[in-house]
Fold this protein.
Amino acid sequence: MASKLSLLFLFFSWLSFTFAGYAVWQRYSPVPLPPPPPATASGLPYRIRLSSVGLDLPVYPADIKNDRFPTTPDGVTFLASSQLPGQPGTAIFYGHNWPRLLRALHRAQPGQVVTVTFDSGTTRNFIIQNIKVVSPKDISSLSPVSDSVSNLILYTCTGFLDRQRLILTAASV
């Protein structure tokens, strides 16, 4: 009986270490994106800044591939199939909850200003309206806030083992 119990403990230990290794691999091995495009007059977002919490990052455009949101370890990803910031509808930005990336979003407050700089050199400001934590399955939070005004959604993982999503919604000034 004791040897069967020992084997059972060994099996569950191996299973736990395997799962932990997979979780670490998944967190630190994102789908790679190409480098950001060179500055042109195309009107794509190039940088995003939330000065009040010390966030200032480059923006990498990407589209959903095989039901996965590609991410980058170097900045914030702009969902290219969403609206451009400043256009009617919702622009979606997302990235990792890493200290050098979007961890600072946890300190954001409603009323603070998010600035998007475009590759043409122009900027657009957005005022944070709402901050909430939701389940990753709650995709309704990524739905357009309004089709008639310009909004921005910025989100990252949060919670124990990044099991939830922190969603920041901002409206154009």
The beta strands are 45-50, 55-62, 76-79, 89-94, 113-118, 123-134, 150-158, 164-172. The CA atoms of residues 135 and 164 lie 5 Å apart.
